[in-house]
Amino acid sequence: MTLPSASGIVLAGGRSSRFGRDKLTELVDGRPLLHHAVFAIDGVCVETLVVVAPLADPPPLPAGSSVRVVRDPEPFGGPLVGVVVGLEQAREPLALVVAGDMPRLQPAVLRAMLHALEDADAEAIVLRYQGRDQQLPLAVRNGVATARARALLARGERSLAALVRALRARGIEETDWRGMDPTAATLSDIDQPSDLARARR
Fold it and tell me: Which ranges of the chain does DSSP label H, i.e. alpha helix?
């Protein structure tokens, strides 16, 4: 099936405080951690934006990549700030948000999220795992998500969970997406060096 037109937003503006150094440059399977998320998004979205901290050096990007780098308006303001700046720069009506430290995103799962958002009477699509809605990856309708996220920021909110609660969200049940991703690899992320060691196995 033809994929819906969507912008991909890769959040890469965190401080890597639990990791102790810039984790997005660490190698996993021979390429920087950030590249894995970029390649996964590139495969399902019309455009890819990487959101970085305002004063950060440009991140390492795949050679020949057409990724656009956009900057947070404030340093380490939280993921919701990064989502807003990404949505404001996005050109497509739908957006798929992931984190730059998610090395095992499965394109089939991401495609299913976009198709579900296009077909459903919903403003956001999340994955359900062990009975809980996961914050990332997150598929949203751009206009309404941007407005709600801005309103949340104005009230001092900074979390993605607040954005999901503010939108009419639908979850894809675990039984529906685990067939495409039996080990739930899509949800894995790298927070500390021990996570990186597991990802390299």
Answer: 33-42, 79-89, 107-119, 142-154, 160-166, 174-177, 193-199
